[in-house]
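User: quick one
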Amino acid sequence: MYNSSETKSDRVIEVNDLAKEYRVYDKPEGLWASIRGLFHREKRTIHAVRGVNLSVGRGEFLAMLGPNGAGKTTFLKLLSGIITPTRGSARVMGHVPWDRADDFRRRFALVMGQKNQLWWDLPAAESFRLHQEIYRIEPVRFAQIHDELVDMLGVSRLLGQPVRELSLGERMKLELIAALLHEPEVLFLDEPTIGLDVVAQHTIHEFLRHVQKQRSVTVVLTTHYMKDVAALCERVVVVTEGSILYDGSLEQIVDRFTTHKVVTLDLEHPPAEGEIEKFGFACEVRGPRVSLRIDRTRIADVLPKLLASQQVRDISVEDVPLEEIVAGLFRGAASRQLNNDREQGARLV
Amino acid sequence: MRTYAESARLQPSYGWLSGLKSWWRMLVICLEERLAYRTDFALGTVMRFLPIVTQVFLWTAVFNASDRTDIAGYSRDNIVAYYLLAMLTRAFSSMPGLAGGVSRSIRDGSVKKYLIQPVDYVGFLLASRIAHKLVYYIVAMIPFVSVLFFCRSYFPPAPDGLTIAAYVLSLVLSFLLGFFLEATLGMIGFWFLEVSSIIFAYMLFQYLLSGHMFPIDMLADIPTGMAGISLADVVRFLPFEYTAYFPAAVWLGKITGWELVTGLVIEFTWLIVMIGVCRFVWWRGTKRYSGFGG
Amino acid sequence: MGRYFKIFSTFARACLVRDMTFRANFLLECLTSLGWMSMNLAFYLLIFSFTPEIGRNSGWSREPFFAFVATGLIINSIVQTLFMPSASELTEMVRTGGLDSVLVRPLDAQFLLSMHRFDFSSMANGIVGVALLVWSVSRFSVAPPLIACFLYPVLIVCGVAILYGLIIMLAAATILMGRNQSLYDFWFYITNFSRYPAEIYAGPWGGPLRMVCTFVIPILLVVNVPAGTIARPLSGNAWGMISLTCVVAIISVGVSRIVFQAALARYRSASS
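Assistant: Done. Structure below.
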């Protein structure tokens, strides 16, 4: 049963000027301050999400990247209808999420890496059975999907063990199965790989990629691991301070936000002092191994000269590592915010 | 550049003064934490008076129907005063959430941090409990004083100074006794996964035998099967009645002279015993815990 | 409806499995709640050693009073088994954000939150309650009329419904305040008023208190009306109370539903 507005366009998620503000009480430090707090408390407004616009098509795999407290989780909570926004609108599969219509809730799933949705003291199989009842999954279909997912992740021997006895990675796999049993069309993943080791991360990446391709699920994933993004997503949304800073492909981030390439040289002899700096900013000189940052526009000019003047054993030209770019983006946003505040402060004076 | 000697001098010393300082710091943090949730607080304080109201009405109905003016040495006014005083004692000796908190921190492993930090867990608990209580008294002072003032006509005239001193001493001891009883109870969590029912069982006895429900004097006519020994005589040697009945009865002048002295001695002995047991259980428990690898 | 029953039984089964995994604990819980009850009974016996009746001419002499106590045991046992464990867990769920995963399920949140956990050990008290009821009724000087025996179970259900409404409203308060450790305490203190016959609330203070606890927070109807129906003659006044109880039960459940929905709309969710 699809909504008409949804079939018209292939937009599964449509968000307009969505904002969420919290009122919090400031808790001043110090004993006297807290005693004063008994009678009077300062209120403050936190802008967790500030007027976000976003549109996601069917079958897209989108990553939201941002530092802690950027508003990623709040955004996911809004999209899954757990909380109601302060202003703005959102449609997910044609539904307003916070109306919490059963028809809507049957068609998506939310997995939170830091929270356990399975029954703690019971084997996961019990939780799965409950899911079957809650989501009204046909027994035959249930068995089919269940077996398929269990096979894919190779967890059949874990099903009978109480969840509390499992490792974090094992638990996450079972969480994912629970979330996919009812074949959701939209999957929200909130930091699914947090705290996992490299092997478990890899398994989960493989699994997610496979499931997403096979069923063309629309996935929105929040994370602060670049690895997740690089492995899974074509589209990246960078969020800081509740606003979207960048929305596009991963490669374009590099195009748009870097001005330099990193050239690494293996020389025959360690370079003489000051000699190598002529060509660009030397970020690392360790014996005969040298890393240079060179402006992208100049790279075609500089490289031939460099090769001509030095005896080069090996050379590589790479983009600035993604982590560094994104970290730079976050820092940039933070300092811009600071500057804004300063300007405002100055104006007030 | 700072020399090694200089930086060594800047290291905190671990003398008693700094112990006191970190203790004070802990107390302040706990105070702040409690103050942050004032609604819970106000609600909890007012609610505490409700059961007394019911008890008073119940006993009034009993006095009414039986045509008696005296039950086990208590007049109706005495009963009202008794319940108020017993509640006041409970405000000192009851430790809401202590045993449960200790066993939970053992179960979920957060107790580990006290095994690696240079903080004595029991000391930390005691400090935070004192903080908890202090804040409670600050906030609860107003309702308590107004209720006691409102009900002043039910009270006999104030006792002499010596009795008051004994009363205060018994109150302080009841706080410490209550603390060590419950902390020890929570540490049973080292041996059993869920101690909630053990805590519940303790609360049960505590409720009946502490005098929270009725003055222990009412048990004086109930035989135990042993010649000449009533149930009240047995209860006197258990720790429970010192957490509610005893201080209240002291104030009301039901316990005087030698009886008062022996009562205080029994209370003090129980306190010493419980401190010892608590230490022992903590020592055995942590040994077992680290043996398991957490 | 059938689906909800199925989910209900899945929950019940899971909780039973859990209880049986911690078998020793389960038994201990049964024993302590039985112990708790016997201590209360001991207290009442103590009271009746001082007086033939509670409240002059109130009709609550020993056997009728024990029928009253039995009624209270039955009602509280039902509430403790079905609703209380879920409600007290809700506090924790709000604090840790566990409520989030309930809200994304295609199921009525109130149903899920008020019935996802059961405490089967609380049934022990109910069973003893029934036995105590049979014992005390058999010792009545006048056997209760047949109509009273029919009305009694209906009024028990009404009593449970009133308490359920109250629990849900407290749960709503938990959601709004974000944290409320005193939920259980509050519950204990409020229901405390329903532990004794309404007749003890007399005099210049008791009268108004009785009015408030009958009409504003209808806690006095819960045990008093079913117990009164079985233990005392059905006067015109009693019929009035019986109808009132039925009406209040419906209102209580209805209002709690509205309050709960309003609270969910204002849920903030704990930050992760």
